[in-house]
Amino acid sequence: QEVVQAFPDTPDLNEEQIDIVLNTVRPFLQVAGGTIDVASITGEGGLQPTVTLKIGGGAASLNSVKLEIAQRLQRHFMMSGLRIEWA
């Protein structure tokens, strides 16, 4: 008997889908005078797609904020090898 591993349907990796996730954290960043935007998306459809984000303001130096944003994106896309980098 064959065992098949099924992954749930995941959204496409594009700026619109990334903004859906970023919009959940933008209000908190704005309170601290911060901003976040997509700088680039590379390697879509490849083995290691990379999303580069630009974060500004007071939260830019907080690794905990960056980690939370990266984890939210990884949960949203459920994509093996997804890298989150910071510009």
Give a description of the structure.
This protein has helices spanning 15-31, 63-77, and strands spanning 35-42, 50-56, 83-86. It is of the alpha+beta class and 87 residues long. A three-stranded mixed beta sheet has the order 1-2-3, covered by helices on one side. β1 (35-42) and β2 (50-56) form a beta hairpin. It starts with 14 loop residues before the first helix and ends with a strand.
Mean pLDDT: 89
Strand residue content: 15-25%
**Largest sheet: number of strands, sense, barrel closure:** 3 strands, mixed
Q: Helix proportion of residues, in percent?
A: 25-40%
- Widest sheet, order of strands: 1-2-3
Total helical elements = 2
Helix/strand order:
HEEHE
Anisotropy-based shape: elongated
Low-confidence stretches: none
Q: In total, how many beta strands?
A: 3
Distance between the termini: 48 Å
Structural class: alpha+beta
Radius of gyration: 14 Å
Layout: helices, strands, pairs:
Layout: H1 15-31, E1 35-42, E2 50-56, H2 63-77, E3 83-86
Parallel strand pairs: 2-3
Antiparallel strand pairs: 1-2
Helix pairs in contact: 1-2
Brief summary of the model shown:
With 87 residues, this protein is α+β, with helices and mostly antiparallel strands. It has helices at residues 15-31, 63-77; strands at residues 35-42, 50-56, 83-86.
